[in-house]
Design goal:
By secondary structure, the chain is mainly beta. It is built from one helix and 16 strands. Strands 1, 2, 3, 4, 5, 6, 7, 8, 9, 12, 13, 14, 15 and 16 form a 14-stranded antiparallel β-sheet that branches. A two-stranded antiparallel ribbon has the order 10-11.
Length: 257
């Protein structure tokens, strides 16, 4: 399967946006205290999950200005709690008023271990409300990212580079004795390159980089076989190699949570 990114195109992580818990009925979302720690699904941290999800509970993202989206990615930090998925455990709807949401795109749940569930839909535009309804009880939902899917125009070059960054700090005493401070268990840093891409794909990559504010926001990278929760380690640079053709590299830092 082709590689792609899914990134926040609705600016859902702004502090002045509203992430509400509640229930869904028909085309209407009603806010209520139906979930425990619902803010965990919109905090850029896949290590902590909300709880108390039962049928017809819902999460609603309300953003300040009209935006567009065509994908939703849901992260499960462990067993989703559903024995056999029918690919309709969740439904996403859109609109500009909480009592007039439409679209109704169904998608499935996770697995018996930590996993991502991704669904795409026909792009919706000029929306300010995005509601995800849980049609069944589910466990360990730790992030719900709504945004855009950016499919790779071509697969990256074969010389993909990977290393582990341990963020060690080495200090030396006046006598030359060295002391090491290690602050994390190590993050994988992957460099993928594209030697010949179109101006359209370049524009799409730049649009994504602007939406995630460079290194600021985390996003989903699917490499053709596995999902990764990453952020840009540095901004992209493009080189024009021919008329309308470009090369670039993306340095992706794997996130621990």
């Amino acid at each position: 399967m082709a590689s792609y990114f899914i990134y926040d195109s609705i600016n859902q992580y702004r502090s002045d946006n509203t992430v509400s818990e509640g229930t869904f009925d028909g085309t209407t979302f009603t806010a209520s205290d139906s979930l425990t720690s619902h803010e965990r699904v919109a905090d850029q941290n896949i290590g902590t999950a909300m709880s108390g999800v039962t049928a017809n509970d819902a999460i609603c993202y309300q953003v300040g200005s009209a935006v567009s989206a065509d994908a939703v990615a849901m992260r499960f930090s462990g067993d989703c709690g559903v024995g056999v998925s029918d690919n309709a455990e969740n439904t996403i709807r859109f609109g500009t008023a909480l009592d007039g949401l439409s679209g109704a795109v169904n998608f499935g749940t996770g697995s018996s271990s930590a996993s991502w569930r991704v669904a795409t839909f026909t792009e919706v535009t000029s929306k300010t409300k995005f509601c995800v309804e849980f049609n069944d009880a589910q466990d360990n939902i730790s992030e719900i990212l709504i945004g855009k899917k950016l499919s790779f125009e071509v697969e990256p070059d074969v010389n993909i580079q990977s290393s582990i960054n341990y963020e060690n700090s080495i200090q030396r005493s006046l006598g030359g004795v060295e002391y090491a401070l290690n602050v994390n268990p190590g993050q994988e840093v992957t460099t993928i390159g594209f030697q010949n891409i179109s101006s359209t794909f370049k524009t799409n990559l730049t649009t994504m980089q602007d939406a995630i504010k460079g290194e600021a926001k985390k996003f989903v990278w699917y490499d053709g076989s596995s999902f990764h929760w990453v952020r840009l380690d540095k901004p992209m640079q493009f080189t024009e190699i021919a008329d309308g053709r470009f090369s670039t590299q993306l340095v992706l830092r794997q996130q621990i949570q």
